Amino acid sequence: MSETILQVENISLAFGGVKALTDVSFDVPKGSVFSIIGPNGAGKTSMLNCISGRYQPNSGSIRFNGINVTYLKPNDRADLGIGRTFQNLALFGHMTVLDNIMVGRHHLMNNNWFTGPLYWFSKAQKEELAHRSEVEKIIDFLEISHVRKSIAGNLSYGLRKRVELARAMALNPKLILLDEPMAGMNLEEKEDMARYILDLNEEFGVTIVMIEHDMGVVMDISHQIMVLDFGKKLICDSPDKVMDDPHVKQAYLGLEDELEEAC
Questions:
Q1: What residue segments make up the domains of the chain, in order of their start?
Q2: What does DSSP assign to residue 196?
Q3: CA separation for the pair 122, 52 (Å, rounded)
Q4: Which of 30, 34, 203, 246 is deepest in the core (most CB within 10 A)?
Q5: In 10 A of CB 191, how many CB atoms?
Q6: 4-262 topology per CATH
């Protein structure tokens, strides 16, 4: 994990007079699970939005695999291999699970798979079948084959979270940004999601940048953790060193016991 896949340098972001991020820098090693933690309003999601291209920072730069992506659009970053899930589910609730995941595959296709019957009489038919084969592998990996034809909006919250991860995986990403992937889940669902994230990282070699409030999960699966507080970086280090940092304990306002129990 010595090679760096993501370099964030001196990123600052403000909305009017409110500073969301101030001069934040960090490197994400290739093949790692990198977690961003901090109190509510610390700037965690704003940072993911800058990396994914949803927000444009006021200053600083973001490099992905050595390419400056600071001002690229989200679709262009997806083409380079950056996937994303959201804190609030962003699925197409009226579409099936399979079709939701195929949307994630869309940018890899040479032809638009929504074009209708004529599409099936072209060479693109073979292309879509190949993409569907890859999607089926993702469905099997996340153990959602039993709901592949179900309408996404009718699924339980935990299953919808899994479908959103599947759609991000369908991009064939080198880096996936996960915004609170376990929020709202029960213990069993959290354990399953943690296992999928670890397998995605270890078996598929995908680098993970994750925001998560469950400190037990963060400490168990992360290689590195960055702590934000009021838009500023407090520390970026291994889980053990982050846990022992007095500034981190102070930022969490009495959550010292929770941090220690998590480890």
A1: 4-262
A2: H
A3: 34
A4: 34
A5: 13
A6: Rossmann fold (3.40.50)
> What are the residues facing 250 on neighbouring strands?
none
The span from the CA of 75 to the CA of 135, in Å, is 20
CB 5 within 8 A of CB 174: yes
User: Apex CA 110: angle with CA 30 and CA 132, to 5°?
Assistant: 75
| Buried b or exposed e, range 90-128, using 16+ CB within 10 angstroms | ebeeeebbbbbbbbbbeeeeeeebeeeeeeeeeebeebb
CA distances from 55 to 2, 7, 125, 205 (A): 28, 17, 36, 27
pTM of the model: 0.85
Q: How many CB atoms are located within 10 Å of the residue 84 CB?
A: 25
DSSP label of 50: H
pLDDT digits (tens, 9 = 90+) for 37-88: 998 889 999 999 999 999 999 999 999 999 999 999 998 999 899 998 876 5
Question: Please, are residues 114 and 190 in contact by the beta-carbon 8 Å criterion?
Answer: no
Q: Among 182, 217, 186, 222, which Cα is nearest to 201's?
A: 222
8 Å CB contact between 211 and 44:
yes
Q: pLDDT per residue over 181-228, tens digit each?
A: 998 889 999 999 999 999 999 998 999 999 998 888 999 999 999 999
